[in-house]
Amino acid sequence: MWAGILVASVSCYALKLAGLSLPQRWLQDPRIQRTVPLIPIALLASLVATQTFSTGRHLVLDVRAVALLVAIVAVALRAPFLVVVAVAAATAALLRALQL
Amino acid sequence: MFTGASQFALVGVVGAGGSVWAGAAAAALLGSRNALYGIRLSSLLNVRRWRRFAASQFVIDETTAMAIARDEPSLSRYAFWATGVALFLFWNTLIGALATHALSNPKVLGLDAAPPAAFLALLAPRLRAREPLAIAFAAAVVAIAVLPFVPAGVPLLVVALLVTLFGLLRK
Fold first, then answer.
1. B156 near A CB under 8 A
2. The pLDDT value given to residue B106
3. Where are the domains of chain B?
C-alpha cells in the first residue's frame, strides 16, 4: 500500500519537475500539446461516472446519482469547489437519513 | 502528492477494492497535465537550482491559473508562490481533518457522494467547448461499460489509453 502511494507521489512530483526543467521544445510537439489536456478530461469524467454508479465491480443506482445531479446544478451556478462537494454530500446524507 | 485530482483518484481506486498500483497509475496519469503547466510556467517564474525543486511541488491547476492571469512577471511570480503556499497549507489541513473524521462511517455523512462531486467541479472548467464535452461523455460511457468486467481501477487505465490514442492519431 505505502509503496504504491510513494510511487504515485514521486510520479506526480517528477511530472511537475519535468515540466519546469525539460527543454521547452521536447514537450512542444503539437500532438503532445493537444493530447495531454484531454487526459484529465477523460479521467475525471470516468471517475465521476464510476464513483457515482458503481460499488466495487457492480453497477448500482442509488442516492449518489441524485447527489451528482445536485452537484451538476451547483457547478452550473458556478458555486465554489467546496460548496459543490458539500451540497452533494449533504444531499446523499439527507436522502439516506430519510430512508429514500 | 500535492495535486487534488490525483489524490482523490488513488483513494477512489483503492476504496473501490482496486490495487494500489492501478490507483497509482491513475494518479500519475492525472498528474501529467502538471508537466504542461510547468512548461508554461518555467518562462514566467524563471526558477533556478533549489528553487525549482520547491516550485515544482506547487505546480497545479490553481497556481498556474493565477500566475498566467497576471500581466507582469513579478506579479506572476508573486501570484504563483502566494497561491501555492496558501493552498498547500489549506489543502493538507483539510485532507488531514477529513481523513481522521470521515473513516468511521462515510455513508452517514454522504461522504461517498463527495468525491464524484469534487471530480465534477475539477472537470467543469475544462468543458467549455463541444469536443471536450464529447470526450467526457464518451469516457464516462466507456468506463461504466468495462467496469463489471475488469478489476477496480482498470477502467480508468482503459480510458486513459483510448484518449491518448485518440489525441495522438487524430489529424
1. yes
2. 60
3. 4-169
